[in-house]
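Dear colleague,

Thank you for sharing your sequence with our group. We've completed the structure prediction you requested, and as agreed, I am returning the results in plain text so they can be pasted directly into your records. Please verify that the sequence below matches your submission; if there's any discrepancy, let me know and we will rerun it promptly.
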Amino acid sequence: MSASDKFENAAEDLKGQAKEGIGKATGDSKTQNEGTAEQLKANAKDTFDNAKDKVADGFSSAKDKLTGKDK
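Please find the predicted structure tokens below.
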């Protein structure tokens, strides 16, 4: 995952936390729920990006083993 992806996901999570906090403080359940949803979205993106990186690493490792570049 690139640094910009990590930053983007962290920023979206932080925005969601702030929105959820504002919703709690003001008693606005809609804003609170939107904040929670933004956090979940950011966490899902982060999880997907990490999985994508692991798959890419696995393919690269397998390719290296098949071509003899792992030695």
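Summary note from our side: The helical segments are 3-26, 29-67.

Kind regards,
the structure core
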